[in-house]
Each structure stands twice: as structure tokens, then as C-alpha cells.
Amino acid sequence: MNQTQTRPPLVRRAGEPDADELARMLSGLTDLSRYFRFQTAIGTPPRQALLLRMLCPTGTAFVATRDETIVGHAMWAWAPGESTAELAAVIAEDDQRHGLGVRMLSIAAADAIAAGATHFLFVVSAANERSIRMVRRRWPDATVERDGALLTFVAPARLPNHPKERPAVVDEQIGCDEASAPHERRPIDNAVPAI
């Protein structure tokens, strides 16, 4: 673990004030990481319209920060189908493979369930072996269909099976329409049981 990873990330609700910092994080990703998350080129820096869709979706968005630097993003948004929520996450290169993505997806999943989601949708590149393993391991009852280079998983809405390890993450929230300073943000209720 490098020096920048010594402080645990803080997971909180995202909002429009996070646009510049989210653009910085996305611009620092490898082309492969960006492709796996978006299945298309997003530009460097990403367009403002994309950032706003990520920060204020039809569901809820979350960011993970360390020293006010965004190191992860997760969201859920209503998808076609009765009470179906699409889940997605992207984690900064240095913070990948430490459990943060699963933690953030767990928070997004809990929020989507609270909003009435009965199914989850994951759209994953067939070449993204890590994400495919993660979905199959944590939502083993998911069905999958292939459409060219994409796999579409649909699973009953429930919290994922949790890994044994857990990153040290502190949770707090800020709404999309709130523009409070970081020190004014409120603690989030423990949306996901400790793992």
C-alpha cells in the first residue's frame, strides 16, 4: 500500500460540487479502466454532461474521498424494467483491488433497495474479468445475457455477499442539491452492515 492509501477513504453522497474532482479522477484512469466503466471513450477531461449524469442520476451517486480527493464513484439509476436499478462503480487506479468498489456498490445497493428496487442490473464488458467475477461471487443468483461485447447481469435486489476483508471506510452523505462545505456534511446512517 502506498503513502496515499494510508488514510481510509470516506464514502459520502455525491453532488454537483464534486464535478471538478470527479473529472480529475476519471482523467487519471487508464484507457482500459475508462472503457470498462463506460464502454466508450469519454474524453479527457470528461464532458460536463457526463459528470452531471454521474453525480445526479435518477437514483443516487456516492464518492469515496481521501483528503478531499475523489478516489471512487458508485451509483445506481433506475433502468428499464419494473423496479430495476442499474449499479455501477469506478475506482482510481491506486485504490483498486482493496475492497473499496465492493463497499461502494454495497452502499449503492442498500440505497436502491430502500428506494424500492427489486432487481439489480449490471452491464459489464465481456473482457472485464474482475468485474464479472465480482458480480458472480457477490450476486451468485444473477442471470446473464450476452449482447456482442457486453454481458448484462440481472439479480434479485439484495445486499451482496461480502468479502472477508473490509477497507476502513467512514460513511457520510451530501445530497445532490446540497452545496455544503466538506466540514458541514452530515454522517450517513449505516446503510450497509459492517463486513
What is the number of E strands? 9
CATH superfamily: Gcn5-related N-acetyltransferase (GNAT)
Low-confidence stretches: 163-195
| Structural class designation | alpha+beta
Radius of gyration from CA coordinates? 16 Å
Looking across the biggest beta sheet, what order are the strands in?
6-7-5-4-3-2-1-8-9
Specify the CATH class.
Alpha Beta
Explain the layout of strands and helices.
Blueprint: E1 10-13, H1 19-27, H2 31-38, H3 48-55, E2 60-66, E3 69-79, E4 84-91, H4 100-114, E5 119-125, H5 129-138, E6 143-147, E7 150-156, E8 170-173, E9 186-187
Parallel strand pairs: 1-8, 4-5
Antiparallel strand pairs: 1-2, 2-3, 3-4, 5-7, 6-7, 8-9
Would you summarize the structure shown here?
The chain is of the alpha+beta class and 195 residues long. It has helices at residues 19-27, 31-38, 48-55, 100-114, 129-138, and strands spanning 10-13, 60-66, 69-79, 84-91, 119-125, 143-147, 150-156, 170-173, 186-187.
